[in-house]
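User: Please predict the structure of the protein below. I'd like the answer in structure-token form so I can feed it into my own downstream comparison script.

Assistant: Understood. Taking the following sequence of 490 residues as input:
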Amino acid sequence: MESAPAPTPARAFTGAQAIALAAGPMTGLALRALAPGGLPPAAAGVLGVGAWMAIWWITECLPLAVTALLPIAVFPLLGVTTTKEAAASFANEVVYLYLGGFLLAAALEHWHAHHRIALGVIRRVGTSSRQLVLGVMLATAFVSMWISNTATAAMMYPIALAIGALFGTGEAARSQRVALLLGVAFAASIGGMGTLLGTPPNLILAAAAKDLAGVTLDFVGFLRFGLPTMLVLLPLCWVLLVFVFHRERIELGTEGLALLESRRAALGRLEGGEARVMVVFVAMAAAWFFREPKAIGAFTIPGLTDLAPRLTDAGIAVIGGIVLFLVPGRTKAGTVRPLLTWREAREIPWDVLLLFGGGLSLAAAMESSGLAERIGTWMAGLQGLPLPLVLLGLAVVTVIISELASNAATASMGMPIAVSLAHALGQPPLLVMMVVGLAASVGYALPMATPPNAIVFGSGELTVKDMARAGLALDVLGILVVVGVVLIAF
């Protein structure tokens, strides 16, 4: 009797991952040794580590958060910084702003408050397929302004599938289901561009603006750029989906309304813990908005900083997060528990906080080592070009990278370069950084470009061609909108 063949041992890494793992440090050491452009040792070391991190981030041969730890591990070995200096960026206050946002999002999700918000928006738009696509997109974008794009897409995805199932069979029905699912994916990313908490690149931008340019970009300050971008791009996306690529129209009538009403009725009345979470949510949003005094003509609305001058957006976020653990709420079963427990808090994406820190640590080292200044010198030849043309080119490059790498990693890599480019052009650094920060969230063409894209692609209802066709067009619109809004709003 023949013995069974021995099982093939599982490999720790694929061939492509193994190549990327080796290419990262090899490229880094080569750049450190070559010191292109006569870079001093510290600057050459930072350039090498930056290239090393870029290779590992783009290929994702290791988890993004693990790659983000490289500055702490490697900078002291190369004599770039001390371990303490490299680690300082991991405690940046923006990390805690996002931590507070994560805790708020976890509470909203646990009590299903985000479902109520989403369904409340959708049921008011009508029952034609075009109106439902708009309603789903509006609800997705609004929720994504406050919780992660991934969580928003995961929440809206089954709702979109349930609505899409009512469209029936045939090519027209399939086309509208594709529009609905793409609307979820695209609106999740677009909504995240609206507020400082919406997506990691926004907070990376805020932290880099303070560390590299000495500019404080708070919650309200970001709204001046992010909110117009979202408000312009979202309707353009809807028009693109339902009037250009998926022009069929299907009426659902009472059946569609019944589905939405049954889902909303299942949530019951707004009460107990869900109501209290909504109160905390509104209070935090109001505190961020009214943190500083607001002048309206000759009238000034006092701000929280009049009472606590050192209060920051991060402080409000942490206070709100602690309150969620302190305030009790009653479940539908009648039990009483805190609005948030550590069981839910353990599930928030802690790895993103490390990713923030790694990007900021790299950016700080580029500045302190003189590498950022040298890059600015290399870019001096761009001074003669029109500013809109330079910004468009920068946005195009950022979007291309964002299609292949995570948007957070793209923003982290781009911020120091944006500061150097701004100095070379004689422009305010925040103007150029804002283009990179917002453009990092413009990546709609590929399933792997963003988690929301991957989530809806997993439905099997659409093909890569479906996503790429609409996504590439939206990429172009996104680039134009981002550059246009930044130039007008600055």
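That's the full token string. Confidence is low (pLDDT under 50) at residues 1-8.
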